[in-house]
Amino acid sequence: MTFRQALTLPRSNLVLAGILIMLLGNFMFALNDAMGKWLVASYSVGQVLFVRSLGAFIVLAPMIAKQGTSQLIRLERPGLQALRVFLATADTAFFYAAVMYLPLADVMTFYMAGPIYIAALSHLFLGEKVGWRRWLAIVVGFCGVVIALKPSSSSLSMASLFAVLGSISFAVSMILGRRLRGTSDTTLVTWQTVGALAMGLVLAVADWRPASAMDWSAMLLLGVVAGSAHLLITRALKLAPASTLAPFQYTLLLWGVVFGIVFFGDIPDNQLFVGSGIIILAGLFIFHRQKVIDGGEPDNVPRNVN
After folding, report:
1. CB 165 within 8 A of CB 111
2. Which helix (H) or strand (E) element contains residue 82?
3. In the chain, N or C terminus with fewer CB closer than 10 Å?
């Protein structure tokens, strides 16, 4: 069954499909994060980013061939497209730089604040009105980030700064993605991957290290996993409203804790759990208020899907 045929199914089936695809996409993202943390322990961020991007084209190549290259060239709002590519690439680079030194769950906690940043910045970038309830949730969410940072001299570390900058870059790139809804999934992910490929090459020049066949394969597989995750999440958001999918986004943190314990022996402390809980509750409230304001209507009805 094709995606266009799936759109003829009852809405409840579409939403269920979106939820299941979101869960799978989050698992793939968490797996990508764990693999990335393992690889940057031995190789530079630039090298991992470069080879990972090559691997992503294993997934993208058939989709580009099906879509045609003309859509890759004829872009809506090229300036915003370029800014989104830059920020999405910075997001990935900052993430890998952060997990070199911080536990996986710690870095993911900062990224879970993405909805809070999006709500705060949507007023500036999208001209959306943000009511006092959501501003209060934004402030509470930022308090959760501060708690998760474990305020001390360590909170000023470069690794923590990388995680915060990466999560903000992620949030702004998501906002720009909302501005570019008319661009196909394949085009968005392809240019995002090209940007990561270019930045990875620049960063890797000064610190390229020989790798075993197994590690080369792992870096390429990282690209396959990351590319698949991006496409799954994008597809899920076209099948079900973002406000419906929002709670399932936080399974990323659960997988981060599990993978951190199993593969790296990182056991989160109570302060991280408290901060994470505050961030999650604030994020869910923001999504709830958005749904109320939208009148309970779906905020992304599938149409003209490529």
Report:
1. no
2. helix 78-99
3. N
CB-hemisphere CA count at 13 Å for 58? 16
Specify burial of residue 209 (Cβ count, 10 A radius: 0-12, 13-18, 19+).
Answer: exposed
Task: Give the end-to-end CA distance of the chain in Å, rounded to a whole number.
Answer: 15
Tell if the pTM clears 0.90, that is, is over it. no
What is the extent of the structural domain holding 187? Answer: 15-293
Tokens of 167: 């999560």
Angle at 289 between CA 234 and CA 124, to 5 degrees: 70
Do the domain assignments include residue 1? Answer: no
Would you say residue 298 lies in a domain?
no
State residue 11's pLDDT score. 61
Angle, vertex CA 279, rays to CA 278 and CA 280, nearest 5:
90
**Domain count for the chain:** 1
Q: Which one is predicted more confidently, 230 or 199?
A: 199
| CA dist., res. 305 & res. 38, Å (int) | 36
Asked if the structure places residue 267 within a domain, the reply is yes
Q: What is the pLDDT of residues 34-70, one digit of tens each?
A: 999 999 989 999 999 999 999 999 988 998 888 887 8
**Residues of 10-30 as b/e, b for ≥16 C-beta within 10 angstroms?**
eeeebbebbbebbbebbbbbb
Stated as kind and residue range, the H or E segment containing 231 is: helix 213-239
Distance CA 23, CA 19 (A): 6
Please, are residues 119 and 286 in contact by the beta-carbon 8 Å criterion? yes
Q: Determine contact, residues 284/138, Cβ cutoff 8 Å.
A: no
